[in-house]
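protien #1 (seq + structre)
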Amino acid sequence: MSMEEILAGESKNIEFKEDLPEKSIKYMKSVIAFANGIGGKIVFGIADKTGEVLGFDRQDVFKKMDAIANAVSDSCEPAIIPDITAQTIDGQTVIVVEIAEGRQRPYYLKALGRESGVYVRVAGTTRLADEYMIKELLFEGSNRHFDQMLCTGSKVTDEEIDNLCKSMKEQAIKNAHSEEQKASIKDVGRQQLRSWGVLIERDGKDYPSNAFAILTGRGGAHVVTQCGVFKGTTKEVFVDRREYDGPLWEQIEEAYQFVLRNIHLGATFEGIYRQDVYEIPPDAIRELIINAMVHRSYLDHGTIQVAIYDNRLEITSPGKLPMGQTIERMKEGYSKIRNEALAYAFSYMNLIEHWGSGIPRIIGKVKAAGLREPEFIGGDVDLRINIYRNQSAANNATNNVKINANGTNGGVNEPATKEQEQVKKLLDAIAQNPSATQAHYAEQIGVSKRTVSRIFASLQEKGVLRQTGTKRKSNWIIK
């Protein structure tokens, strides 16, 4: 435990205690919550409100450490074995109790039982787990997947199975990236669906798993995708709203088209040819929606929400991150499959490629389009991903028309060059003061007047800038 960690204060996986409470349950709930999550540390001897290192007398330290070990052993089920150490910080002796991520979930307080003694961490606080969360922990602890379980009370006909196989092959062909890939697509049949866990065979008969119901939008699985456009940056004022149900691949396409209809469309130029370009890369939008569909928790009865605000596209996926997954690991390409049957089906339909590659690819495409890196929020009860839009006309123009150092237009996915940065700065300056002189703009962005004149001429030629007023008193309009 470093001084830097202490100065950073309490967090999702670090908790401070000034002293050892008389009743161990006051910190045992956090021990349980850390084991049910990604692990964490409880540091005794630090004031939780101020972060002041108070420490303990050396003769009391080992007695307190034994008391903590006994309390954990007596209170927790299944057994939790903490790593308890004494550390010297800022000249004071503190006790650090480190709890590893547990594999026998759910962990709970013996005195309260599994029904009312399971705790989890949410936004840096310890909370009692609800029924959905306990079920999620049970599946994780038994290394099972909810989507591969029998869909209770549902039956399936031969016609329904054949229709699913036919639809999946149609999607695989539709989503193929080349004629060669199309030619390699094989029929999918019952045996394949059984091996994935989409069908479950019992006594020579096929029954639908939860994955079958989710994929087809039938049976007990009521899965919908909610889409909305909002005025401003909050959900106070609706502009438009839609709700899509049915087969998952149809929901993906409907949500994707909804976003494209409600974001800006600009252009790049290749020589004299214009190419329409969306302000957010369409491939990144589609992959985000697909990622939400395949990785969300279907135990949680919430819905995937696709929200478009003035400043961002926000996609919310129900359910906490699966065991072993963190936002940091996810961004690095580490894959933790929550819905294995759906993942196999999506892979066959060419909706996903290599498992785990989606998020890094999305980040790369968004950054290459000149937008800030996507923002990942939550992970405790749901996951929200934001892609921020360019709000000013200047930023939109910069995104839509990129000029290489040689003066020609580049594609929207090329990394920014020095001159592209100059264009952005110039357009920002024009947006703030549209009637200044070229000499003023040159001084403001730190380049020569000759450079500014050349960029002006290029932007006018491409239709990005339009001049109004007189030569003596010009006014520049960014289109």
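ok now protien #2
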Amino acid sequence: MQFKQEQMEFVNQLLYPILILKKNRDEERPSTQLEQQLEDIVEEMRHMSVPLETYMDKILYFYKDDVLRMFFINVKTLLRYRSFDEYVEFLQSMDEVLIKKQLMTSIVKQDEEELVVEDKVEELVGNQFAFLDFLKYLPIDDTLRWNYFTIMSQPKKFVEDFISLHQTIKPIFDKVYAEYLPILEKSYTEFEATIREHPTILAEAFTGTKEIKEIDWTSDDISVIPTLLLSDFFFQDSEILLLGAKSLEVIQHFIQTRLDKQQERINVFKNLGDKTRYQIFCEIAKGTKSVKKIAEQLGITSATVSYHINELVLSNLVVQGWNKKDCLKAIHTELITEVMNGLMEDSLMTNTVENEE
């Protein structure tokens, strides 16, 4: 794994406008520490993007659509350059045909019925009427349809307008980048040290994701660049990892949360591993409302029942005051469901079933 610190500024300049696309989270209030952490980070990214609001329309034009954005932010291209000026020289050297072909290839790929992409691109590149006819049946909105058509009419202008946008917002980016550079450098240093010490940490964080699991994170084929997309994590073409400057702490928190949840499941199973306690739990779940009644049902003393119920309450399996008249819910069914789902994930039962099907 290579850490491309020298390319951080260039890559971050290209990615900075994406911050303005960050949406407000729907939750009224985060319910876990991890959600609170993510909420705080998203809010920080929104704050960074405030100075860009004047240029909102232009940014959305180039960055909202995947096809247009990926034309400029292409992994294989980015790794060749160390500065935006170098990249601009490359963009300006592209002729109209090359721009059209690259854009057209991505556009044609949106048509799921189109099997021979290269042939279709060759057919459409030099024929505006055929391209317009192709766009009519593409499953995209009319605004995007018109954008594609006008870009193909003036491909060089499309590239020059992108360069102009970045030249305009560069003073804003420079200020934000200078403020966050210490955080990026700290992220770079800590992430490199963590990967060297714990090379499986990313596989652990994204367990169950086949593509992530099969990657050799120690390979020099992978390049890492910390970004102003603070909590985001992008991995493209098995070549580059665009890591948010605060992603490592989120990943570590995520792993610790999962370990805590796993321990919670272990504690639940330990708690219910006692036969008497399990029978008491079942009686409560059935709706038996008193210690005395449960003792009679199971043929044990009320003191024994009370002891086991106290343990069930402490483990959050049974609601405190379960036998009171106003208690409508005696057991935490959500916890039981969460524990069983967690068991399925831990034992990879879900993947096994899917594979068998």
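The chain has 19 helices and four strands.
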